[in-house]
Amino acid sequence: MDEVLRHEARATIDDVATRAGVSIKTVSRVVNNEPNVREATRERVQAAIRELNYRPNASARRLAGNRSFLFALVYDDPSAYYNASANYATNLHGGALKMARASGYDLLVHPCEYRSPSLVEEIRQLVDHTRVDGLILVPPLAEIEPVISALREMEKPFIRVSPGEVKGFDAVHTNDREVCAEMVRYLASLGHERIGFIKGHKHHRALANREKGYRDGLKEAGLTFRKSLVMDGDSSFDSGVACGARLLSRKYRPTAIFAVNDDMAAGVLHAALDMGIGVPSEVSVAGFDDVPLSRQVWPTLTTIHQPVYEMAEKAAELLFRQIAGERLTERSVLKSRLVIRDSTGPAPSSD
User: Fold this and answer.
1) Strands 106-112 and 70-76
2) DSSP code of residue 141
3) What number of H helices and E strands is found in the chain?
4) Is 192 helix (H, G, I), strand (E, B) or coil?
5) Nearest to 96 by CA among 76, 77, 75
6) How many Å apart are CA 69 and CA 53, to the nearest integer?
7) Is 0.90 topped by the overall pTM?
8) What sections of the chain are H helices per DSSP?
9) Cβ pair 15, 52 in contact under 8 A
10) Which positions ≥6 away from 108 have C-beta within 8 Å?
């Protein structure tokens, strides 16, 4: 008997409308991310789209809506200023792509050099040549005023991820300052009074909020800020090793060290091991980001989980709403949180 091959028919907009119990026009509005759709209805339609694996006809959508249904995630090569693990970029891509798929958009990833003298022209050409409907800017690009001014001049929608200053509604922020103060208070609750701090790359203004949180935390815990306990790192593992070694070589060394990212905190662990200083018995170490490295080093690293995936997802959602003509009126802040592991413990008793 001849074998008959049957292919599952591709879902249509009618199928989605039937499954969601709405009109075809409503499905079209949701797919095109248009306003004036109730949130419950939008969620029902998006659920039907996922269940049926519905894929809108891209060419028809572009012609009908005069859009490309393409947006760009623009970021700098992290190794140039922020030696984060590949997990950071992967989470950015993943969060943006999840929302893109749910909304019928395609994602264009565009890394660039933020220190380039032709950066603004590069962004202009990106917009002109690809006809993207909007952009998501990641630090430090999210903080470069000439780029922001150029996009506003071009009237091109954009959303910034974690810019240094919290103002306006075109950005997704985290509570860096507040959560860093919480980390310092936690270390103080363990009896630590000399808490060292390692700053990040000076070009990453968003990291400045973490230093402010460090100072806030000391004040809230009734501890004195000591400039001698603050070191200038560059967000790399090697700078963490160097800064950690300098802090731990002092006669009155800190009993805890808080670094603004996990790479530098891992560097401090390395320095302590090399110097024969026990962690956490003689010095506690904490970081920020909660990248996979924080769970792979020993002792495992106490850190702050930054919701990078969710931030990129939220940024894409806000961008699509802006593209659809909606005026954003609420500030988006996603909370980071403490993750307590083995690298922190009670302060050693004084001699």
Assistant:
1) parallel
2) G
3) 13, 12
4) coil
5) 75
6) 18
7) no
8) 13-20, 24-31, 39-52, 58-65, 86-103, 119-130, 145-153, 176-189, 208-220, 237-248, 262-274, 293-296, 308-323
9) yes
10) 70, 71, 72, 73, 130, 132
Residue range 258-271, pLDDT digits in tens: 999 999 999 999 99
Q: How much of the chain, in percent, has pLDDT values that exceed 70?
A: 88
Give the DSSP letter of residue 284. E
Place of tokens 């530098």: 264
CA distance 152 to 245: 46
- Interatomic CA distance for residues 208 and 321, integer angstroms: 30
Q: At which residue do the structure tokens 């300098």 appear?
A: 246
CA distances to 128, 175, 281, 336 from 330, rounded to whole Å, are 30, 15, 45, 19
User: Phi and psi for 173 in degrees, rounded to 5?
Assistant: -115, 165
Q: Tell me how far apart the alpha carbons of residues 172 and 188 are, in angstroms, rounded to a whole number.
A: 30
Closest CA to 334 of 210, 209, 173: 173
Distance from C-alpha of 92 to C-alpha of 86, rounded to nearest angstrom: 10
Digit-coded pLDDT (tens) for 257-316: 999 999 999 999 999 999 999 999 999 999 999 999 999 999 999 999 999 999 999 999
Mean pLDDT, rounded, for 213-224: 98
